[in-house]
Amino acid sequence: MFKTAMEARNALYSKEISAKELVDLYYKKIDEVEKNIQALNSLTKEIAYKTAQLVDKKIANGENIPPLAGIPLIIKDNICVKDTLTTASSKMLENFISPYNATVAEKLNENLIPIIAKANLDEFAMGSSTENSAFKVTKNPHNLNKVPGGSSGGSAASVAAGEALLSLGSDTGGSIRLPASFCGLVGIKPTYGRVSRYGLIAFASSLDQIGPFANTVEDAALLLEAISGYDTNDSTSINVSVPKYAQNLDLNIKGKKIGVIKELLAEGVQFEVKESIEKAIQKYKDLGAEIIEISLPHVKYAIATYYIIATAEASSNLARYDGVRYTYRAKDCKNLIDMFTKTRSEAFGDEVKRRIMLGTYVLSSGYYDAYYKKAQQVRALIKEDYNKAFEKVDILLSPTCPTTAFDINSKVSDPLSMYLTDIGTITINLAGLPAMSLPYGVDKDNMPIGVQLIANVLEEQKLLNFAYALEQAK
Ligand code: GLN
Hints:
Structural class: alpha/beta
Largest sheet: 11 strands, mixed
Number of strands: 11
Helix content: 25-40%
Strand order of the largest sheet: 1-3-2-4-6-5-10-11-9-7-8
Order of helices and strands: HHEHEHEHEHEEHEHEHHHHEHHEEH
Shape: globular
Radius of gyration: 21 Å
Bound molecules: glutamine
Number of helices: 15
Distance between the termini: 23 Å
């Protein structure tokens, strides 16, 4: 087995292995471990072998191929891939076959990256543990009694279990960074607008962003490069060129300023997480960076603000699932209203219903100003906190999550304690910034710990460079 995409690429280039054999190898691994991990909703063998065949043909003809050509990838099951089941892990879309490709799926095709499977998630990406899937509970490969994090838990667990070398997830409030942290991977949430959202099943449109998981910073940089870029199909995508992130990786951070977010290292942070963060800070000091304490005073309102904005947007985005369009429709309905009601009652899970109700409530007349408008105002203050911080520092640092992975079933009956796991990640989505989680250390039970780095808008290169410096200094 290969540890990184780069290793596999070298094996392909030197003809030690063909792209077809590489795909075979990962399907074999899936056969071995999937029964324990439960990370996948479906396999996409036809697509995978078709792409692998193209790669092998190009290699045989001595043609140039893109850097990640032939490297097996798993995609979150809320991203549309033409002619495949795309379920968002919801009963509502159980039999939905996407008639088109998301822009990122097109880009994977252009880069000849074989999509080998679709990964489990919390239903419609709502959750932090992947326990909200309508189909299965994904396990953390580091300890099968623990959650992999969420909502992109299947994407993270599959790579951590060696089922693929790369995966894609989506991050609305931490859904890439949290599972990356719990599973010991690199995970990036790009700047809002850096990667097209066209074909991503919408949860909260002003926050959603697609991003990569990988074993190393270099692999993640290559995948980010492959999926980034302007897209006329997404009105929020930014029209700027995509840097050569991997080629431009630079270890030298001497004299650069790192801001450590005070509020995210306060009470409630697990002792070993704090310890690892302190070690990372010391390492950065050794590498010549200057450390500055930064306060983001509005972080304390982050959970409330996020759970108003995200639920409001979710309630309107999910209005389309009415039994008329898409796949699920309740049987024996008396009239149209009865069909809408029954369909939605039967096919949405508890968390999704909870959010639709909350979101509908905060948008209802009479409450709009008190909740939604107020939340948007606080969102502006949070963004302002970051603007001020980036006047003083190059990059910000915090734990990705205050704790390591928790036990399966330990938080399902207490939504508020589940929401609190997002404290470190959600402000970044509210502010539209790029951020990533990088593995750094383990707790006493050997569960991975994640360091979060946050950069200013479109400064993904800076983010990657700081991450690369820490990764290589280990
Ligand atoms: N845990 C957060 C939520 O449940 C974030 C989810 C996400 O980023 N998709 O909303």
